[in-house]
TrEMBL record:
The protein's name in its UniProt record: Outer membrane lipid asymmetry maintenance protein MlaD
NCBIfam families listed in its UniProt record: OM_asym_MlaD
Originating organism: Paracoccus simplex
Organism placement in taxonomy: Bacteria, Pseudomonadati, Pseudomonadota, Alphaproteobacteria, Rhodobacterales
Domain Mce/MlaD: 40-117
Gene giving rise to this polypeptide: mlaD
């Protein structure tokens, strides 16, 4: 009986480890480590404001996740935040594509939306996306609205 109980505990332990390994594999898919080890290529984009964007943030085209942010660094010469976007090799973007920081709703996180252009030539690995729009602060928009309403009232 003791031997059967030990065997059952062994199988349960093995099942728990297998599930944990599965969760680990799932959680690191799309992480910077996976992006560096896996295939794909990087594009760069320099934003005036990357509020809400960090390593691992989703990169989407037409709302579909196609990649992740591999790194975000401040350029000390321009004071712009330079994001490196990791994309799979099958996603080729025209050279006049745009990168916009979007939010997932009022309280949601942010992501980078790539909008393909119409140029005949494609961006090459390491190229920079020139057409960018940084993050928009919801609080600053609300403050502008309040200020505009108070100035219309004559106060």
């Amino acid at each position: 009986m003791n031997s059967a109980a030990e065997r059952a505990e062994l199988w349960v332990g093995a099942a728990v480890l297998a599930v944990a390994a599965g969760f680990l594999a799932w959680s690191t898919s799309g992480s910077p480590l996976t992006a560096r080890l896996g295939g794909g290529y990087e594009l760069r984009a320099a934003f005036p404001n990357v509020d809400g964007i960090e390593v691992g943030t989703e990169v989407r085209v037409a709302g579909v996740r196609v990649g992740r942010v591999a790194a975000v660094e401040l350029n000390p010469q321009t004071y712009y935040a330079e994001a490196r976007l990791r994309l799979p090799p099958e996603i080729r973007l025209p050279s006049d594509s745009a990168a916009l920081i979007q939010s997932d709703g009022l309280l949601g996180g942010a992501y980078i939306e790539l909008q393909p252009g119409g140029a005949p030539d494609d961006l090459q690995p390491g190229d920079e996306i020139e057409d960018v729009q940084g993050a928009v602060s919801l609080i600053s928009l609300m403050m502008k609205f309040v200020d505009s309403q108070s100035s219309e009232d004559g106060t």
